[in-house]
């Protein structure tokens, strides 16, 4: 008996085939469509709320006033929005430029070359080159391909699945992950102090230097002939502790703020940072994990580099820290492992169902 292996259809191939109408699997439900507009027009619009920009230049200043002002701006953005543009973040523009060039170089290759790195989601192997499978209730697909892999700590990375082309991919990505990990420590320290905790507390609660995983997902959003009907990434909150995003200066990120979708403007030399569910839970909702989505367009390819800082799946129980809970503000989240939280979100499973579900290695 011959087993036929079906290679998932790549969105890039679909986009390049000359179609004028997108397949029905990519069309969003009718109730969602009125909110999807022209991303370029929306980015240019003045007025209305704007994603905050936080200048980190003074975050460790010896001048107490400068340092406290910077830290308060970061804390306030995490409370009000849960997302911000970080500028003067300390990661050299030369390095972020190399990371972008490496990712764009990988996606610039023929699809046949990229397929050598294809993942096998059905077998539970999510690292590598992929496209979303229809695993949500509506069977909906997203207008993107991606490359996903663990980038830190180094002893938990698998270099055998990292792209060999371009030749700078591994060196640039490794150095960026290392510097981003240091920035993660700085941000978590400020958020800890903002909760009245010791500065190392949140870092410890999410696994510390040994256990906190940095997972990179390069999102590749091809041009779309009917962008008003599709989404690059559907509305979601990040399960991570923090998420850091670089992009190629093509707008596409939208945040659901005060009941409306707000388009993030492109800020040169910034890194976008999201507070994820993990920190929202630990802070008992004092820091926000904001609902967001990715919009596509018919004129330009958009590429983004998202790094998710994730706690270990089973070793830590995520729940509001005792110091964040009071009689007036009881716990808003039940205790769960990170793995249970993911299953609860993705599959709406109860905690008992999540515990009973076999893991890929069982």
How does this model look, in words?
Residues 212-311 form the Fe2OG dioxygenase domain. InterPro entries: DIOX_N (IPR026992), IPNS-like_FE2OG_OXY (IPR044861), IPNS-like_sf (IPR027443), Oxoglu/Fe-dep_dioxygenase_dom (IPR005123), Plant_2OG-oxidoreductases (IPR050295). Its cofactor is L-ascorbate; Fe cation. The protein is an alpha+beta fold. The chain has a single domain, classed as Jelly Rolls (Sandwich). The protein is 29% helix and 19% strand. It contains eleven helices and 14 strands. It has helices at residues 11-15, 39-44, 64-80, 93-107, 111-114, 169-194, 201-205, 208-211, 277-282, 338-347, 351-356; strands at residues 53-55, 83-87, 128-131, 145-152, 213-221, 233-236, 242-247, 253-257, 260-263, 271-275, 292-294, 302-310, 317-318, 336-337. The protein has an eight-stranded mixed β-sheet with strand order 1-2-10-7-12-5-4-3. A four-stranded antiparallel β-sheet has the order 6-11-8-9. The two termini are 27 Å apart. Residues 1-8 and 349-362 have low confidence and may be disordered.
Q: Which word captures the global form?
A: globular
Strand order within the widest beta sheet: 1-2-10-7-12-5-4-3
Distance between the termini: 27 Å
Structural class: alpha+beta
Domain count: 1
Helix content: 25-40%
Mean pLDDT: 92
Number of beta-strand segments: 14
**In sequence order, what are the helices and strands, one letter per element?**
HHEHEHHEEHHHEEEEEEHEEEEHH
CATH superfamily descriptor: B-lactam Antibiotic, Isopenicillin N Synthase, Chain
* Count of alpha and pi helical runs: 11
Which parts are unreliable, with pLDDT below 50 for 5 consecutive residues or more? 1-8, 349-362
> Largest sheet, described in full?
8 strands, mixed
Name the CATH class. Mainly Beta
CATH architecture annotation: Sandwich
As a whole number of angstroms, the C-alpha radius of gyration is: 20 Å
* CATH fold call: Jelly Rolls
Strand fraction: 15-25%
């Amino acid at each position: 008996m011959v087993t036929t292996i079906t290679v998932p259809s790549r969105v890039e191939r679909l986009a390049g085939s000359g179609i004028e109408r997108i397949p029905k699997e990519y069309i969003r439900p009718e109730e969602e469509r009125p909110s999807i507009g022209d991303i370029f027009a929306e980015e240019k619009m003045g007025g209305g709320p704007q994603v905050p920009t936080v200048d980190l230049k003074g975050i460790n200043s010896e001048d107490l006033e400068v340092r406290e002002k910077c830290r308060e701006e970061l804390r306030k953005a995490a409370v009000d929005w849960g997302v911000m543009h970080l500028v003067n973040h300390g990661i050299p523009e030369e390095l972020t430029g190399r990371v972008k060039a490496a990712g764009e170089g990988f996606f610039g290759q023929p699809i046949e070359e990229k397929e050598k790195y294809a993942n096998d989601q059905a077998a539970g192997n999510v690292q590598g080159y992929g496209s979303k499978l229809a695993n949500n209730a509506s069977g909906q697909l997203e207008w993107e391909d991606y490359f996903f892999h663990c980038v830190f700590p180094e002893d938990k990375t698998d270099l055998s699945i990292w792209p060999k082309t371009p030749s700078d991919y591994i060196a640039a990505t490794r150095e960026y992950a290392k510097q981003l990990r240091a920035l993660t420590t700085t941000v978590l320290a400020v958020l800890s102090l903002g909760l009245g905790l010791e500065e190392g507390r949140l870092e410890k609660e999410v696994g510390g230097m040994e256990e906190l995983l940095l997972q990179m997902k390069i999102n590749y959003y091809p041009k779309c002939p009917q962008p008003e009907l599709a989404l690059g990434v559907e509305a979601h909150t990040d399960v991570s502790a923090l998420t850091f995003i670089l992009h190629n200066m093509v707008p596409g990120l939208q945040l659901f703020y005060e009941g409306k979708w707000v388009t993030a403007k492109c800020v040169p030399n910034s890194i976008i940072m999201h507070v994820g569910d993990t920190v929202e839970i630990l802070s008992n909702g004092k820091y926000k994990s904001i609902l967001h989505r990715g919009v596509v367009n018919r004129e330009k390819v958009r590429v983004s580099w998202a790094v998710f800082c994730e706690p270990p799946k089973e070793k830590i129980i995520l729940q509001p820290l005792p110091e964040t809970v009071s009689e007036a503000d009881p716990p808003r989240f039940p205790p769960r492992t990170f793995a249970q939280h993911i299953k609860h979100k993705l599959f709406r499973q109860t905690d008992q169902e999540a515990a009973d579900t076999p893991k890929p290695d069982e």
